[in-house]
Amino acid sequence: MSDKKSRKQEQLERFTADDRDKEMTTNHGTKLSEDEFSLKAGERGPTLMEDFHFREKITHFDHERIPERAVHARGYSAHGEFELYESLEQYTTADFLTDTSKKTPTFTRFSTVAGSKGSAELARDVRGFATKFYTEEGNFDLVGNNIPVFFIQDAIKFPDLVHALKPEPHNGIPQAASAHDTFWDFIANNQESAHMILWAMSPRSIPRSFRMMEGFGVNTFRLVNKEGKGHLVKFHWKPKLGVHSLVWDEAQKVNGKNPDFHRADLYEAIENGDFVEFELGLQIIDEGDEHSFDFDVLDPTKVWPEEEVPVKRVGKLTLNRNVDNVFAENEQVAFHPGHVVPGIDFSNDPLLQGRLFSYTDTQLTRLGGPNFHEIPINRPVCPFHNNQRDGMHRMTINRGQSSYHNNSLADNHPRTVPPEEGGFEHYQEKVEGEKVRARSESFKDHFSQAIMFWNSMSEHEKGHIKDAISFELGKCQQTAVREQVVDMLSNISGDLASYVADNLGLAAPQNQAENITKTSPALSMANTVQSPETRKIAVLLAEGFNGEEVQGVLDGIDKAGADAEIFSTKLGKIKADNGYTVEADHTFLTGDSVLFDAVYVVGGPDLSESYKMKAKYFTKEAYMHFKPVGATHDGKDWLEEAGMSGQPGVITSDDLESFGEDFIKAVAAHRFFDRELV
Ligand code: HDE
Asked: What is the pLDDT of residue 4?
């Protein structure tokens, strides 16, 4: 059996394993002899009230849905494990960050922010990247995003931001998209969003895959060591496969062709044994250096440039197991930045401080009460005891008479634990001040880092941002909103503001951006890892194709760790000129160019004109999305005719060996943005 087939068979057995040999009963254990017909007074008569089976089944069904998350409703998850490279005891007492012999189980949920639970996955949006570490000292949740800064500085503005971002209340339009008036009106009138909006309009907000994006804790946390000394820290995730994105035209089409594109990608990679790896990185600042930067280290609209504060890679997360049940795990998982373990503490970052309230609070509505920590996916792996009791959905049957502290009846148990024995002790930071509702002076510079980000972008990224903003504002109805945004952009870059203004038919803006030349090369995706691993290559061929050559190229693709999927005139076995046979995975009905990373065009004798037209369209679309295109035989002629030959990333060598190598190199490079669009 082929690898693919045996995996499918194995999946099928796994999926049905739980129900095998089981008898059907009611929820109360009464065996059922029949499950298709309700109990009626006569075959054509009314259903009877006494039908307890019908009532139970329908009642349960009527209550199957829970409220979706207020934000990050659309998400997908996987289990994994975290391994530490070297002890960080110099900085923290957390056991999963000091004991290199431990493998800490994890659960990671990726998400979009704005769309509802059923929305398409390639919306232009920030992605959530939340990981629960089930450590032996309790759960630590790193609840981050794929963008390292945020729109606002103070949590009290979060409801305003989200109201502006969500579909407009009077008509519920648009779904899962920021291209509308209220969102951009918010941006223009809350200029602390300047830095974040550039990230959000960059290619980062349409990732190629959850497996190919960075993750950031965003907020500043604190690590605390044995001596009680604190260091400020920012958390990062660095993907093994590098940071890669789609282009906008492609993303919009993917949403139609496969609205589950990202979840399917993650699920299939794990099923195929291509486990997903991210390195955990830390940026650490000595508290003595807290004030030595040209930004406030507590301001969540600022990055700590990696060139100034290097990212230390301290361990590896491997996602290696798919969820068994999407509701039980992906829907019911409850993350919270306040789930910390001894050795990890908070900073006074005002966004973080507000988040510490919100995440437990929201679960009360979403998961129906205060006992959501007892749901299997949320339970710590270490024992947990306290005097909290009862409430909706309580599962634990607590024994004993006392449920209060202090007590003498249970000899004062459960007892509190001194810090020396692992009890959590809050970091003893000295704080004093007037009670004020105010923004710190040090939080008032909204543009320096936006300019640094802009300066650090490659030409392609700059072009992407310009077009993204032009698209989004083009969808806004109010000229005043467009004008205000253009005005705001002119504080970042005259070039950016004029380009957008011109596209929108507005007058060029008057403001002059500050002359800041600082760059941070780490911010650009152009400097990322390139790898052909798990890339999906569409191979277009038909009966009678050149067997020797295709076999050679397919072997090369396989060796490089990429994945070829065959398109042909029909599904099933397709024979080459030398008897070699491949199994077609798709026709042009079931697959589409936008769902692939690259195309290898082979063709075959006796193809109909209509098939050739479709193959050329498929290839041209890949070309227009800057994807690698390889061709031999008929394919070469098709590329020639369409004017694609000779362009960067278009590989048409006659020498089989060099063709294979060059094509794989092109696949690793992902996209060729310096290509002429013909
Ligand atoms: Fe969240 N956020 N958030 N957020 N957030 C939620 O909690 C909130 C913020 C993030 O896959 C909610 O369980 C406030 C920043 C992720 O289940 C809610 C503020 C970052 C997820 C909430 C922020 C995040 C959430 C909704 C402003 C990146 C999904 C459902 C201070 C560091 C987790 C829920 C998952 C979810 C509140 C801002 C990341 C309402 C008040 C900044 C990845 O509690």
From this structure: 64
